[in-house]
Amino acid sequence: MNSMEIAPRISVDEKIRFGKPVISGTRIPVDLILGKLAGGMTYKEVMDEYEITREDILAVLNYAAKSLSSEKIKVIA
To answer: Using an 8 Å Cβ cutoff, are 43 and 53 in contact?
Structure first.
């Protein structure tokens, strides 16, 4: 499988990060960027550390939001 875009600016490739979603054209996993932002890093700090753009960060957030919106949770009593 070659790299396949699964959302704008987000792609997967089984040869890159074990097929985890990454920012297209990089090896930077979506979950890494989410974790850095959740940990308190600013957009600027993340952009500088990983050499990505604001648009990349927004694509990560958009992908995460859409992924969560389709998630179904079963409550087991």
So the answer is: no
Cβ neighbors of 6 (< 8 A, separation 6 or more) are: 12, 21, 63
Chain segment 15-63, per-residue pLDDT in tens: 999 999 999 999 999 999 999 999 999 999 999 999 999 999 999 999 9
Q: Where are the domains positioned within the chain?
A: 4-65
Residue matched to tokens 């490739």? 13
| Residues 11/22, Cβ–Cβ less than 8 Å | yes
User: How far apart are the C-alpha atoms of 36 and 45, rounded to whole Å?
Assistant: 9
What is the CATH topology of the domain spanning 4-65? Arc Repressor Mutant, subunit A (1.10.10)
Report pTM.
Answer: 0.88
The whole-angstrom separation of Cα 37 and Cα 39 is 5
Cα of 29 vs its chain's centroid, Å: 5
